[in-house]
Amino acid sequence: MGYSVVILGVTFLVSYILLKLFVKYGFKLGFVDIPNHRSTHSDLKLRGAGLGFLLASLVSFIFIVFKTPEGLSIDGNLFKHYLIFLICMTGIGVADDILNTSAKFRLFLQFFFSFLFVGSVTHGFTQPVSIVFLPFDSGLLSYLFCILYLVWVINLFNFMDGIDGIAGLQAFIWSLLSVGLCFIGGAPFVALLYAIVGISLIPFLIGNWAPARYFMGDGGAYFLGAFFAATPLVLKVEFQQSLISFIILMALFVSDATVTLIMRILNKKNPLKGHRTYGFHKLLLDFNWSHSKISIIYALMTIVWCLPLSILTNSIKPIVLLYIAYVPFISLFLLLGVGRESKARSMESET
Asked: Does a structural domain hold residue 331?
């Protein structure tokens, strides 16, 4: 217990110090977010502030590799492959922050590293991964699902980082709630990983709240997306914990991003091009809700609706809970008209 407290304290301190340094030197280093047609702000902001929490988290993770807390255990090779995957995905995001890389090239790398990661955690695609909602039990189909799942969660988290506070607060809430789910499922080691990420986000959240002084950037978004995608897969393989629990916990973000993407494709819009047609954009532009109000509502919906359903996966058929979690959100976003451009309205004044 004392070891974990020290790790969490050091993580918070490192995240705070790195963020302060970034705020001081970020503009000079060229980490500038210039407003464009997709932006919900009109002035220059620091972009890439996620370097603070992602580096603090990764340093703590790497330290744990060499000194695993007593009483907490995980397969060493699995954890190393997991860390390599997080570092690779984070590197893709940081490179985009600095070099503005091609979306197609990033997508190729995401599929490549996701393929390698799924292969490593399933011991060369020999260990089956049971996915309850797949139409039939097929090892090949489950591996394909895992790869697509990883790539999609990484990208949707980046897509959903579109207004002040929303992605950071959602990541913080997911981390705290996942700590509880891990303890319920008998995985205290992974609970510590979630706690590390959660506490590393606190300094960032303060300055990212509306009106935001800085944004996490693709590096921070890719790290969080990879973390929240890969960690449940590790829990599934190593601790036989339900993957559905975490898919349900992410239901609001997944529904918003997925329904929007599908509607844009149906409307013959380029799915790789930036836009302002997500559910949170509709609430901002069509209903004139503030950034902070939307972020808080999204967080409360996750706590009040998704968390109880996630906990019940051990006592009620997961597929039933999956429908209960997702159908209302999917219906809501269809009613909001996601995927279609909003009517011209004044941009939210908080940014």
From this structure: yes
pTM above 0.90, yes or no: yes
When divided into structural domains, the chain yields a total of 1
Classify each residue of 267-304 as buried b or exposed e, where b means 16 or more C-beta atoms within 10 Å of its C-beta: eebeeeeebbbbbbbbbbbeeebbbbbbbeebbeebee
Contact 131, 142 (CB under 8 A): yes
How do residues 216-247 score in pLDDT, each as one tens digit? 999 999 999 999 999 999 999 888 888 999 99
* 307 within domain boundaries: yes
The answer to whether position 224 is within a domain reads yes
Q: Which domain holds residue 327?
A: 2-336
The sign of the torsion formed by the CA atoms of 66, 193, 23, 98 equals positive
pLDDT digits (tens, 9 = 90+) for 110-141: 999 999 999 999 989 988 788 877 766 667 88
Residue 351 belongs to some domain of the structure: no
